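Journal club prep — side note

Before the paper discussion, L.F. wants everyone to see what a predicted structure for a comparable chain looks like in token form. Sequence:
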Amino acid sequence: MDTTDRGLSLLKKGQKGFFHAVFSRVGIMMVLLVLQALFLFMAFFKFAQFLPHVLGSAAVFSVFMVLYLLNSRLDPTAKITWLVVIMLLPVFGALLFWYTQSDIGHRAVHARLQELINETKEKLKQDPQVMDALQNDCPDEVSLARYVRRSGCFPVYADTKVTYFPLGEDKFEAMLEQLRAAKRYIFMEYFIIEEGLMWGRILEILAEKVREGVEVRVMYDGTCEFSTLPHNYPEKLKTLGIRCKMFSPVTPFLSTHYNYRDHRKILVIDGHTAFTGGVNLADEYINQREKYGHWKDTAIMLEGGAAQSFSLMFLQMWNITERTPEFDKYLDAAAVNDAVEKSGGSALAEMAVEKSGEEAAAEMVDEKAGEVAAAKTPAAAGFVLPYGDCPLDSDKLGERVYMDILNRSRSYVHIMSPYLILDGEMETALKFAAEKGVDVKLILPGIPDKPMPYALAKSHYRSLLDSGVKIYEYTPGFVHAKVFVSDDCRAVVGTINLDYRSLYHHFECAAYMYRTECIPDIEKDFRETLAKCRQVTTETVKNEKWTVKLTGFVMKAVAPLL
């Protein structure tokens, strides 16, 4: 990859660093947050002289809280964590529990997002012919599709071509090509954006596309303020004609809303092409900058009707702060028409007619579908089910899709994940699959990016190994891929890690695939990656550094809070 042209930059050199962090808006916000925390502790200790008089009450209160937690709907692992916190700090622990469960800071977001989901739940209709075909092929897949659809507007698609990228560099080159071909709109939603070669080259194309009349929207998570972008970066992009938003920017006040981050990685072009996977928009993801050895990441590109689901996911998040949201403009027959032209699937034309309801638009799409059929463009095989996971509802969608794969597997389940911080249900599912004879293999980082999650992952090793789960660590560096592949017929690629943050606290997305042509490519990549790994054994676990063991031992008690 040519590194001489780093593309467009909007930031001056030297804008990052310690002094910038301290004296920037983020630095001020952090100081205010610390002052608030100190005030709470000072208020607590101010009344410490009354503590002897309330010890009995505290004991009774602790017993009540224990009974309350045991009868709550919390995850069992989270119950244990809160029991430990409350038994050690009865009053302060109970206040912390109340604070985190009260949803202060995101009730309005929750209500608004639910309103948007209800408004759009029929925007993308399920093609009954696709469901009939899936029913004939595998009824179990239909059951999963029905469950996923109850969480949002997530149809199953046929005739959507899926391309798998085994490295961030591969995705980057394909992104550039597809961005240059954009005609109507570009939607980008990423957890991390950082100026450098990758974002500079992309930004250069985005600016050019705006000049051509293409609508460009960019959204990124507010945590970028801490390390990669200044608070006024959306205004800087506005000077190029790019509409930009931060999801949940940092504010001076403590709020449980900070617990819910936008961890998605979505790029949608004209409604017919979409990208997702683990790759953020920063140079380490394409190995232009080395942080933790070689960065192993993956992504997929969807060409066809399934890209529409990612358009909808983006628009739902974007419109949280919009008074007059627009959906039909981007989810109409014209967009699917482009999908038909690119993928060659006549089923997509029928789907577009059902979505539009306008006779003229239907005729236009049918005409285009006929042209494509006449050209004898081969249709894509298999079924694709894109989905988004929202932390504000009661469905642990990301975890349950993973568990469904583990429970229905017959031969193997091969997994790549950067983190392994499991609740009891997921650990049991992994162990049960291995105990019934399924080849369960996990590839995890050999070089960690964070010491505590690394130690917590190792705290699960012995239990998993005892049940027959095989664990490997990627010796060249850091694995950031989020991949499940099973039995040569089903796979998931997306943004969902095997940890509490992804499974419980983050907005996530992924694509479930059944019998798509790229599944052999995913399994091939897993095996090639496995050849670069060291296997974890009971002996290597026994010989692990005592500091890592101790860290995992202690942090496991508060893992759900991390």
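L.F.'s comment for the group: The two ends are 37 Å apart (CA to CA). Keep this in mind when we get to the figures.
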